[in-house]
Design a protein that fits this description.
The protein is of the alpha/beta class. The protein has two domains: 26-71, no CATH class; 76-186, Glutaredoxin (3-Layer(aba) Sandwich). Helix content is 40%, strand content 18%. It contains nine helices and seven strands, in the order ααββααβαβααβαββα. It has helices at residues 2-13, 17-20, 55-63, 65-68, 83-93, 106-115, 121-124, 136-140, 171-186; strands at 42-45, 48-51, 79-80, 97-102, 128-133, 149-154, 161-166. The strands form two sheets. A five-stranded mixed beta sheet has the order 3-5-4-6-7, sandwiched between helices. Strands 1-2 form a two-stranded antiparallel sheet.
């Protein structure tokens, strides 16, 4: 069991990069705006894969990524690996916190991949996100009985209120529930 926890902790520590870096986050070149990207011509920016239309654009980007970063699209979501850190950040920013409880199962990997969907970029920009190793005692505090499990909490509420427990990682559902949570926290 200890080896399993260590393996999952290592995956969490990498921010599940393997789940989010398989394809570029953009469809058009950030250097030659509006031009479609070509397969295999990529660079990394802040933990996300960025695609380009040609090697020349890739070289220009690599020489000065800050110049083109705003043209890449929404900034990558970063999964904090501590619930406490996410709650603190969410409270400071007055944002809901999304907590993904995971284990080393294929189902958890699928959930992480679904949460990496580009259609969720804007929604995740409005929350603080944490992905943690499933610990029965910790998860129980949030009403999660098994991994994977996803909860959205209001860190600004007294005692950190659970707004929603999700039993699916379908991007459309996750996006909708995040939007509802953002409105609830903003009303305060």
């Amino acid at each position: 069991m200890k080896i399993l926890r260590v393996a999952v902790a290592v995956l969490l520590g990498t921010g599940f990069a393997w789940a989010f870096q398989s394809k570029p986050v953009n469809d058009t070149c950030p250097v030659k705006t509006g031009t479609a990207i070509k397969a295999g011509i990529t660079s990394e920016l802040g933990g996300k894969t960025v695609g380009f239309c040609c090697e020349k654009c890739k070289a220009l980007f690599d020489a000065d990524p800050a110049r083109f970063a705003s043209k890449v699209g929404p900034q990558p979501r970063v999964a904090l690996n501590s619930i406490d850190a996410a709650l603190k950040q969410g409270k400071e920013d007055a944002k809901p916190v999304v907590i993904l409880f995971m284990d080393a199962s294929a189902k958890s990997k699928t959930w992480a991949e679904n949460l990496g969907d580009k259609d969720l970029d804007e929604a995740f920009a409005k929350v603080t996100y944490s992905a943690v190793v499933f610990d029965r005692d910790e998860a129980k505090k949030y009403g999660v009985s098994s991994a994977p499990g996803l909860v959205i909490v209001d860190p600004t509420a007294e005692g950190t209120k659970v707004l929603k427990t999700l039993t699916t990682s379908a991007p459309k559902t996750v996006k909708s529930e995040i939007e509802i949570a953002v409105k609830k926290v903003a009303k305060k």
